[in-house]
Design a protein that fits this description.
single chain, mainly alpha, 3-stranded parallel β-sheet, two-stranded antiparallel sheet, 8 helices, globular
Length: 200
């Protein structure tokens, strides 16, 4: 891929009451927003079950990084990650005999996957859409010293603006590096002032 361009991938994680094909769904890496929108139009909410499989989302990010380096993860959710006990209990719904035949054959835990992302210097920004998720999402973002904020999904303009700013500023930082990154971000912020107030 051209070093002057960037790609985005969307991944959706659910819970262990979904079979392998629905537990994690991901788009191809894309440069065209219409293709990402087309992918999201195929996604339906499904699963629930209290704490969620954030460990699977982070596991996927680590797998993608092993294929080709990534620079950041934007985590969006409405619940805490599964505990170790949750993982074991919820995987028992279909049983380890089932999971052993899938790409999710090995149980994992969000903290383990987060450690690997940190080791590879991958930033993790966490946006919670329900206050019940705030505590753990702050913990996740603080481990990589990145942003954790409430994402207002009921206001398409505000939510979209927040994510646009986050992604754009990280791209500018990557392009500019240590010497020019912050300068580029400051110029962007001056040209496009925030249209929202952050809720931390």
């Amino acid at each position: 891929m051209n070093t002057n361009s960037f790609q985005i991938q969307f991944a959706v994680y659910r819970n262990y009451n979904n079979r392998e094909d629905k537990l994690l769904q991901s788009s191809p890496w894309e440069t065209k927003p219409n293709n990402l929108r087309a992918f999201m139009n195929t996604i339906n909410v499904d699963g629930g079950w209290a704490n969620e499989t954030i460990e699977i989302g982070l596991w996927h990010a680590n797998k993608e990084h092993a294929r080709e380096p990534i620079t950041q993860v934007i985590l969006i959710g409405d619940a805490h990650p599964n505990s170790l006990e949750d993982v074991q209990k919820k995987r028992s719904k279909f049983g380890e005999k089932y999971w052993k035949k899938t790409k999710f054959s090995r149980p994992t835990y969000y903290a383990k996957e987060l450690d690997q992302l940190i080791e590879n210097h991958i930033l993790v920004h966490a946006f919670y859409v329900e206050t019940r998720a705030k505590e753990k999402f702050k913990e996740i973002a603080n481990r990589t010293v990145e942003r954790c904020e409430m994402l207002d999904i009921n206001s398409t303009d505000v939510g979209a603006d927040m994510l646009t700013d986050l992604v754009t500023e990280q791209i500018l930082n990557n392009i500019g590096g240590e010497s020019k990154g912050q300068e580029l971000i400051n110029a962007y912020r001056k040209k496009f002032p925030k249209s929202y107030t952050s809720i931390k």
